[in-house]
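User: I've been trying to design a sequence by hand for this structure and keep getting stuck. Would you show me what you'd pick, starting by listing the structure so we're on the same page?

Assistant: Good idea, let's start from the same input. This is the structure you sent:
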C-alpha cells in the first residue's frame, strides 16, 4: 500500500528553510517572488582587461548598497538574486584551484561542442532550427579547455590552444542580476540606479529583459502561448532543514519529493551522497565566513547552500503556434468529417501541452485532474496516453511513473524520474499577446531558469533523454511538440490515432550555466 502524505487540500505544500540555512541561502531558491509581479533581468559584462587591472569584488560591494541580494530568511518588499558564469568568476580573480573545483559542465559552459549537441542547439557547424537565425546573442563565452578533449592527462585548468572550434556569441555575460519589483516604474528606476552604481567599476549591462508574472483576470499566471504556468514543482525534504509553513518537518512527498541536495550543494542528494560544490583553500582571501569543508582538511566550502542555475532565453512565436494548431485541426476535420467534430484548435493545443489552458491535466474520456491536485501517476490514470498524450510537453518534462514497463516497476520508475527533477524559477518576458493572436514583431518569450546541483544528471538529462528523445515512451521519430524542432506528434484516440505536424515554436536566443552562490559565498566574492 502506498504510504502517501496528505497534501494541504490537494495543493503542493509550501516549504521553506530553517535557521541557519535560511539566512545563508539566496531567496530565489525557496521562492519565485510571486508577490512581486514585475522585474528585470540584467546581464552584466566585466569590462576590465585582466584581474590585475580592475578585478575583484569591489563592484559587488557597491552594488549591494542599491540592490541587496535577498536571502531566504524573510521576505523583502523587493527582491534580488545573482549568479555568475565561470568566465565571470575568473575575471573577478577567484583562485585557479577554486575555479577548477566546480562541476565540469559549469567549467565548460553551455556552448561546448558536446553540450550544444546534447541540448539540441547545434550540429557540427550549423545552428539548429530551435535557435534564432544567426545564432544566439549571448553566453558566458567560456574559454574552451583542451583537457576536455585531450588524450594526455593533465590538469583541467591547464588551458592551451583550442583543439576544437570555439563557438562565440556577440555578447559576453559574466553575471546575471535578477530584480523583482512591485510595478514597472519602480523597476525601471531601480535599473537606472544599478547601472549608475556599476558604471565606475566598468561593469556594463549588455543585455536586459523585462520579467513579468502578472495574473490574468482569473488569477492565473500564464505563459505567452496562453497556458497556466509554474505547475508541478519538486518538493525538497531534509529533516530539520526543510519545514512546512506551519513549522513542521517536511516528510518525503510520495509523488514529488526530492532530497534537498538535488537543489542545494552541501546537502544529501537522490543518490544518498552530499551534493558536491566548489572549495577554496584556507588563507586564499577572506574565508572566515565560509564553513569548513566536511571532508577536505584545510579547505572551505564555497558551494554549501549554493546551486547551479541554468538560464536560457527562449523566444516564443505565439502566432505560429496557434496557426499551426488551427491548420492541423482543419486538416483533421476535412479528412474525417464524421469522427472529428470535437477536434478544435484549442483541443489540439491542449494535447500538445498535456494540460488544458487552466492547468488541469488531461485524462481519458475527456476528464481532467484539477490543477490543485499534483499527487498522481500516469500508470494508473492514463498508461497509454489516451488523455494526456505520451509525447506531450508535460509528460516528457516529468514522466513520473509513466515509463514503467510493468505495474511492478511503477515505484522504481517514479523514484528514477524524481532523481532528475529541476526546480524552475523562470518568468516570461515581453508584451503579452491576446489569444488568438495576430502577427507582430514584438520580442517575447520565457527566460527559463532552473536550479540543480548536478547539471548533467538533472537539466541535461531532461533535455536530452526526455524532451528531445525521438523514441521517448515507445514513440518513433518525435520530439517535444511544444519546445522541440519541427516534426510530428501522435495523439492516441479510440479506435484510431491522429498524427499532426508541428512547427518550431520556441527558439533559444542565449543561454549559459551560472553559479548561484550562498550568502557567505557572496561575501567572499565581494572581498576578493
Amino acid at each position: 500500500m502506498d504510504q502517501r502524505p496528505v497534501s494541504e487540500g490537494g495543493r503542493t505544500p509550501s516549504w521553506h528553510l530553517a535557521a541557519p540555512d535560511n539566512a545563508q541561502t539566496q531567496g530565489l531558491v525557496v521562492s519565485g517572488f510571486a508577490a512581486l509581479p514585475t522585474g528585470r533581468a540584467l546581464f552584466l559584462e566585466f569590462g576590465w582587461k585582466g584581474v590585475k587591472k580592475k578585478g575583484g569584488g569591489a563592484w559587488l560591494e557597491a552594488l549591494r548598497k542599491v540592490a541587496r541580494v535577498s536571502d531566504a530568511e524573510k521576505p523583502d518588499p523587493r527582491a534580488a538574486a545573482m549568479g555568475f558564469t565561470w568566465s565571470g568568476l575568473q575575471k573577478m580573480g577567484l583562485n585557479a584551484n577554486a575555479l577548477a573545483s566546480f562541476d565540469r559542465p559549469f567549467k565548460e559552459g553551455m556552448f561546448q561542442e558536446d553540450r550544444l549537441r546534447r541540448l539540441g542547439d547545434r550540429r557540427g557547424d550549423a545552428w539548429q532550427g530551435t535557435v534564432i537565425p544567426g545564432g544566439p546573442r549571448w553566453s558566458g563565452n567560456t574559454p574552451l579547455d583542451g583537457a576536455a578533449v585531450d588524450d594526455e592527462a593533465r590538469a583541467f585548468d591547464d588551458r592551451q590552444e583550442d583543439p576544437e572550434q570555439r563557438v562565440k556569441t556577440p555578447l559576453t555575460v559574466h553575471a546575471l542580476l535578477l530584480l523583482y519589483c512591485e510595478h514597472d516604474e519602480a523597476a525601471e528606476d531601480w535599473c537606472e540606479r544599478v547601472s549608475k552604481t556599476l558604471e565606475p567599476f566598468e561593469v556594463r549591462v549588455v543585455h536586459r529583459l523585462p520579467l513579468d508574472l502578472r495574473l490574468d483576470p482569473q488569477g492565473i499566471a500564464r505563459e505567452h502561448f496562453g497556458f497556466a504556468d509554474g505547475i508541478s514543482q519538486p518538493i525538497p525534504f531534509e529533516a530539520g532543514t526543510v519545514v512546512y509553513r506551519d513549522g513542521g518537518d517536511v516528510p518525503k512527498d510520495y509523488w514529488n519529493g526530492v532530497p534537498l541536495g538535488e537543489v542545494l550543494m552541501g546537502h544529501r542528494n537522490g543518490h544518498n551522497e552530499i551534493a558536491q560544490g566548489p572549495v577554496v583553500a584556507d588563507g586564499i582571501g577572506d574565508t572566515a565566513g565560509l564553513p569548513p569543508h566536511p571532508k577536505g582538511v584545510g579547505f572551505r566550502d564555497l558551494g554549501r547552500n549554493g546551486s547551479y542555475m541554468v538560464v536560457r532565453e527562449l523566444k516564443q512565436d505565439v502566432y505560429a503556434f496557434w496557426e499551426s494548431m488551427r491548420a492541423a485541426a482543419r486538416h483533421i476535420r476535412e479528412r474525417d468529417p464524421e469522427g472529428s467534430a470535437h477536434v478544435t484548435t484549442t483541443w489540439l493545443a491542449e494535447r500538445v501541452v498535456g494540460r488544458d489552458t487552466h492547468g488541469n491535466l488531461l485524462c481519458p474520456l475527456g476528464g481532467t485532474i484539477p490543477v490543485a491536485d499534483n499527487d498522481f501517476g500516469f500508470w494508473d490514470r492514463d498508461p497509454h496516453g489516451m488523455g494526456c498524450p505520451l509525447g506531450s510537453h508535460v509528460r516528457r518534462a516529468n514522466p513520473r511513473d509513466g515509463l514503467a514497463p510493468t505495474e511492478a516497476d511503477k515505484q522504481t520508475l517514479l523514484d528514477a524520474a524524481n532523481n532528475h527533477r529541476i526546480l524552475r524559477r523562470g518568468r516570461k518576458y515581453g508584451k503579452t499577446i491576446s489569444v488568438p493572436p495576430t502577427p507582430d514583431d514584438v520580442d517575447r518569450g520565457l527566460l527559463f531558469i532552473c536550479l540543480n546541483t548536478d547539471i548533467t544528471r538533472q537539466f541535461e538529462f531532461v533535455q536530452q533523454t526526455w524532451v528531445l528523445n525521438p523514441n521517448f515512451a515507445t514513440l518513433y521519430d518525435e520530439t517535444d511538440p511544444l519546445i522541440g524542432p519541427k516534426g510530428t506528434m501522435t495523439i492516441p484516440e479510440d479506435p484510431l490515432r491522429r498524427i499532426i505536424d508541428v512547427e518550431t515554436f520556441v527558439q533559444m536566443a542565449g543561454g549559459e550555466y551560472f553559479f548561484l552562490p550562498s550568502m557567505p559565498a557572496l561575501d567572499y566574492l565581494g572581498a576578493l
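That's my pick for every position. To get oriented when you compare it with your attempt: DSSP finds 14 helices and 23 strands in the chain. The radius of gyration is 23 Å.
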